[in-house]
Amino acid sequence: MNRDETLAELEVIAERLARPDFRKLVLADRCDQCPNGCAQAFVRVAKIIDGKEYELLFCGHHFARYEPELIAGGWMIQDERNKINAKPMSGSNFEE
User: Fold this and answer.
1) Domain limits at 54?
2) Please, are residues 25 and 58 in contact by the beta-carbon 8 Å criterion?
3) pLDDT at 96 (0 to 100)
4) 30 versus 86: which is more confidently predicted?
5) Paired sense of beta strands 43-49 and 52-58, if any
6) Alpha carbon distance 33, 84 (integer Å)
7) Is residue 72 part of a domain?
8) Which one, of 94, 35, 60, lies nearest residue 44 by Cα?
9) Confidence check: pLDDT of 50 > 50
């Protein structure tokens, strides 16, 4: 893949993440790395590979562990770690 193709793929994901209708992470979103999805996800990363979009969800702990590699690998990041320890509202879908 050449540089222009890579930039075009990053732009597609960046535009999707920036849309006002793009879903924020909620209490029901679970970390893909935690056993049995035991932790809430606060970070979504996305990347287009061979024309297909991939998405991973991370808790704060696992994102911190993989952050340098994800950044170096060109993954787009939706980081909502500022919500960690925020008191959730009634119901299962905490949104700010």
Assistant:
1) 3-83
2) no
3) 45
4) 30
5) antiparallel
6) 17
7) yes
8) 60
9) yes
Pull the structure tokens for residue 42.
């606060």
- What is the number of structural domains in the chain? 1
Give the pLDDT confidence of 9-40 residue by residue, as tens digits. 767 777 766 665 567 899 899 999 999 888 99
Q: Report pTM.
A: 0.71
Within a domain: 94: no
Q: CA dist 61 to 4, 51, 79, Å?
A: 33, 30, 13
- The answer to the question of residue 49 being in a domain is yes
CB atoms within 10 A of CB 75: 19
- Residue corresponding to tokens 């991973």: 56
d(C-alpha 81, C-alpha 52), whole Å: 26
- Is residue 95 one of the residues assigned to a domain? no
